[in-house]
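Ticket #4471: structure export looks truncated?
Reporter: QA, pipeline team
Priority: medium

Steps to reproduce: submit the single chain below to the structure queue and open the exported record.
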Amino acid sequence: MLLQAAFSLPAKHSQFTYSVEDRSSSLSSTIQHPVILVVEDNIGNFKLIARMLESLGAQCEWKTSGYEVVEFAETLPHIDLILMDIRLPYEDGYSAMRKIRQHAQYNGIPIIAVTANTGVEQMNQAKLAGFDGFIGKPLDVDRFPEQINRILSGQSVWEHN
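Actual output as written to the record:
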């Protein structure tokens, strides 16, 4: 496994790159090495997400808040998916999602709310706000890779706990 890291906490501009070798062919979509931007302020949650995505051959880019998420995204060659926590420091996930949507180059990229604020009401709020999907925390380690597979294949995922 290849692990690259460049981050310092708790700075507003913290970022982390997590790359893994493709060790399996479990990705059913046409994207063989997806680049996934994970906007999550909790390092433990990010590590869990990154480990689960490892089996998909994903490269995970980490931003610790919604603050300057567009500027960070512009430093990446491309993005296939954005997983966005709702409760973030400095700028919440709703605001960050709206900023991303203002840039045409990101219009085709699914933005999925991944949050501990689960329930039908929160899921509907995310849908009305413009998110492309919803995955409630705690994440199910058995279902999460399949949920990501479905999203990368163009299917919607709206699931709360």
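Status: closed, not a bug. The export was complete when the record was re-opened. Leaving a note from the reviewer for reference: The chain is about 30% helix and 20% strand.
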